[in-house]
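Notes from the 1:1 (GR / supervisor)

We went over the backlog. Supervisor wanted to see one worked example end to end before approving the batch request, so GR pasted a single chain during the call. The sequence is below; no edits were made to it. Supervisor asked that the structure be written out right there so they could see what the output format looks like.
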Amino acid sequence: MIGTKRAWFAGWLLGTLALLLVAVTPAPGADSDTTDIDELPTPGTLPGSGEVLPAVSVPFKRGESLRFSVQYGIIKAGSAWLEVPNIGTYDGHPVYTLLARAESNGFFSNFYKVRNRIESYWDSSGHFSRRYTEKRREGKYKVDSEIRFDYEKQEAVYKDGRTFPIPPGVQDALSSFYFARTQALPVGGSVLFDYHASRKSAPMEIRVIGREKIKTPAGEFNCIAIEPILKAGGIFKNKGRLVIWLTDDERRMPVLMKSKVAIGSISVVLTEVKTGA
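Structure output shown during the call:
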C-alpha cells in the first residue's frame, strides 16, 4: 500500500502537472518499451540532427480526443485527456476550443481526489490565445480562474480585474502545446515563442531533441522528441526536465510525456485516440 504522503504527492502531481501536460513546469512522463525513464534524451543523443520537420498549419481536427494514463512509478493514478471539442467564435473572432481534463482514479481519489479542467480559446487564423480558464478540484483545494487576452490594449485581464502586459500573439498554458504542434521543428535546434501564466509573460523555448520510435497501448509510432524550457526565473524557474514525444507525421500527436521527480517517476502515456473529422 502506498503511503498517504506519497499518495497525496502523486495526486497533486496528477492535478497540477498531468492536467497541464504542455505547461512548461517539469512534470509528467511515461515509460515506454524503448526509453528508460532515468535516461531522458538530450540533444545529440537521438538521430535526426540537421533535419527540419516542416510546419503543419492544422495538425488536428475538430473532435480530436487523446486519452492518457497517468502513472506514479508503476501505479496508475488516473487519466488525462487533450481534446478539441469545437470550432466557434469568441468576441467575434474564430477560435478552436481546446480542452484538457484530469481525473484521479478510485484508488487515488481515496487519498486526494482530482477533477480538473482547463480550456483555451485559440484564434484559428492567428494561432494565439484569446481566453484561458481553469476549474481545479484537488482534494480540498478549489479554484476557478480566467484570463482574457486583450490585444488592442496588449494586456491580460484576470477574473479579479487586474491587468498585466503581454506581448503580441501570446500563448497560454494549454495553447502553447497546440502551437508547438504547428511549428517547423529543426532537429538539434529550437523554437521560441511568448507564453503567459500566473500574471507573468516569459519566452518559452522548445528544444527539438531527435527521432525515436515509441510503443504505447495506442500503438507504435515514429516520433520526434521535444523539451519545453522556460527562459526566466521566479515562478517560471525551470527546476527539472519534461520530454514530450510527438508523432513525426502531419498530426504531431503527443504519445508520451515523461519526467523524473524527487520521489519517483511520473508517466503520461497515450492509451486511446479519436482523430475527429
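Supervisor's comment: The first helix runs from residue 4 to 18.
Batch request approved.
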